[in-house]
Amino acid sequence: MNRLKITAGPFIFVARLLVNEAPQTCAAFRLRLPFRTRIIHVRWSGEAVWAPLGDYDFGVSAENATSHPSRGDVLLYPAQASESEILIAYGACRFASKVGQLAGNHFLVIEQGMENLRALGERCLWEGAQDIVFESC
Q1: Can you list the pairs that 78-84 forms with residues at least 24 positions away whose Cβ atoms lie under 8 Å?
Q2: Beta-ladder partners of 4
Q3: What is the mean pLDDT of each run of 10 residues along the chain (137 residues)?
Q4: Which pTM value belongs to this model?
Q5: How far apart are the C-alpha atoms of 77 and 68, rounded to whole Å?
Q6: How far apart are CA 94 and CA 78, in angstroms?
Q7: How far apart are CA 137 and CA 127, in angstroms?
Q8: Is 6 in contact with 130 (CB distance < 8 Å)?
């Protein structure tokens, strides 16, 4: 169960959990599967989409944290300086919010469906919020 299926808008992706690099984040996320929310285009971070989660508490602290995710990287930001969120980079990205640069827990990497990441980002930008579901595959 180290792979997750991500259905975002009309696109399907398969991602690998980074269990060695972010064990607490992976375990906390697995407990919440299937995880359903909505994504929108980021405001400050560049080419990425995000799921704003408010004060949702995953019960984890920083681990394997980065401010510069690569295309296909998925970050979980536990509510600290800003609200809790999930970020998916589809291009050049520097993770930030209205309080400045953030570092999120890099816990997933998309391995299948990468050819549709930019289309997902552009769909969120031009058409608005998209449903997203993370589930075991």
Answers
A1: 78/105, 79/53, 79/54, 79/55, 83/52, 83/53, 83/54, 83/55, 84/53, 84/54, 84/55, 84/56, 84/57, 84/58
A2: 15, 136
A3: 95 98 98 98 96 95 97 93 92 92 96 98 98 97
A4: 0.96
A5: 13
A6: 17
A7: 28
A8: no
**What CA dihedral angle connects 31, 34, 38 and 41, to 10 degrees?**
70
Cβ atoms of 85 and 52 closer than 8 Å: yes
The reported pLDDT for the residue numbered 99 is 87
Tokens 């608005």 appear where?
128
CB 42 within 8 A of CB 76: no
Query: Do you find a cis peptide bond into 10, omega within 30 degrees of 0?
Result: no
